[in-house]
Amino acid sequence: MASRSARPSRAAQTRPKVIVTRRLPQAVEARMAELFDVELNLDDVAMTPEALAAAAARCDVLVPTVTDHVHSGVFAAAAAGGRMKLCANFGVGVDHIDLAAARAANIPVTNTPGVLTDDTADMVMALILSVPRRLAEGEKLVRSGEWQGWAPTGMLGHRITGKRLGVVGMGRIGRAVAARARAFGLTIHYHNRHRLPGELEGELEATWWDNLDAMLARVDIITLNCPHTPETHHLIGARQFGLMQRHAYIINAARGEIVETEALCAALAKGTIAGAGLDVYEHEPAVDPRLLAAPGVVLLPHMGSATFEGRQAMGEKVIANIRVWADGHRPPDQVLEGWA
Ligand code: DGY
Fold first, then answer.
1. 92 lines ligand 1 (CB under 6 A)
2. Cα–Cα distance, 42 to 61 (Å, whole number)
3. What's the CATH code of the domain at 168?
4. Model confidence over 37-68: pLDDT tens digits?
5. Which end of the chain is more exposed for a tag (fewer CB within 10 A), N or C?
6. What is the DSSP letter of 256?
7. Does 70 reside within a domain?
8. Do the domain assignments include residue 332?
9. Total domain count for the chain?
10. How far is the CA of 92 from the centre of ligand 1 (A)?
11. Active site members
12. Angle ∠(76,77,81) on CA atoms, nearest 5
């Protein structure tokens, strides 16, 4: 157990030096400028690992986001006489931050849970609808000018209602996806480390599968909604695709690294599964060319939480975490192990 986090200095309590690694919504940046001695990244170019370590030496608070690799050197620089005492992430996922190094350096890490749940679940639902119903193909067809009009056998896809949805990870987002999916007539199956309380399970009429393999073999659509941790890295690989039904679809709006890209491309090429809906990729922003070429695949640019309202609320959470910390209290969204 790490000892109590270092307390903010007197100067940090009144007007902490805050370095923000990417552009944030205008209102968030403006409020930060009122409250903090803030350094913004007006070019919006992701900082290099060296620049991040240098930032740790001269700020009280670093505000990174998913595009930064907040490596052990950042925390080592802070521990070795640097100034940084808090890492207040803009975003819920913290797999880009070396949490063990943060803990060793006694630097709390905070995130922004809750405020992007509905937006992300909406996007998952959009992918659940888009892939079996061929939405992206249909849109392209109209734009191409080649659409010949309605036909009894034109653009046939697969019905959603009555299908089995397998939710991997029943945290906030997984549960929000399940609630939406129920309204579309899907039956809910889930795999999670811990079984949901009976009342919640009852509300969602959800079936818990202790064994992921068994669930994968049984469901029609799989949605990944777990955090990316060492335990979930490449959770879905060749063996797992081999268990899925040939008509199954996989949806991933969590983190690309949960799926082994090689295995996904092979499963799509061989017809081991019928399609995929992806909002995240293993080596973002690079997208494997085989995914770009594969039929039955809908690809989005990591936009699950991309609403004006959501990004504003994320910024407000970052500000609240910094303010509470500067006042000498435990920030509300302090991450203990992986995602909160
Ligand atoms: C998150 O919050 O982790 C998203 O992936 C980025 O918005």
1. yes
2. 18
3. 3.40.50.720
4. 999 999 999 999 999 999 999 999 999 999 99
5. N
6. G
7. yes
8. no
9. 2
10. 5
11. 255, 284, 302
12. 110
Q: Are 284 and 174 part of one and the same domain?
A: yes
Asked whether the predicted pLDDT for residue 259 surpasses 90, the reply is yes
Largest CA distance in the chain: 73
Q: Are residues 122 and 53 in the same domain?
A: no
Claim to verify: residue 175 and residue 284 sit in the same structural domain? yes
> Ligand 1: which residue has its CA nearest to atom 5?
93
pTM of the model: 0.94
Spacing, Cα 278 to ligand 1 middle (Å): 14
Give the tens place of pLDDT for each residue, 77-120: 998 888 999 999 999 999 999 999 999 999 999 999 999 999 99
- 118: closest CA among 314, 322, 259, 296? 314
Peptide bond into 295 cis (omega under 30): no
Q: Which amino acid is at 31?
A: R
pLDDT of residue 6: 64
Tell whether 150 and 278 lie within a shared domain: yes
Q: What is the best residue among 21, 24, 90, 92 to mutate for testing ligand 1's pocket, by most ligand atoms within 8 Å of CB?
A: 92
116 lines ligand 1 (CB under 6 A): yes
**Is the distance from CB of 165 to CB of 178 less than 8 angstroms?**
yes
Q: Whose CA is nearest to atom 6 of ligand 1?
A: 91
d(CA 85, CA 20): 14
Residue for token digits 């409250």?
35
Q: How far apart are CA 322 and CA 11, in angstroms?
A: 14
Q: Are residues 196 and 91 in the same domain?
A: no
CA separation for the pair 313, 311 (Å, rounded): 5
Domain for residue 339, yes or no? no
Token pair of 64 as six digits: 């990174």
Q: How far is the CA of 280 from the centre of ligand 1 (A)?
A: 10
Domain holding 78, by residue range, is: 3-115+308-326
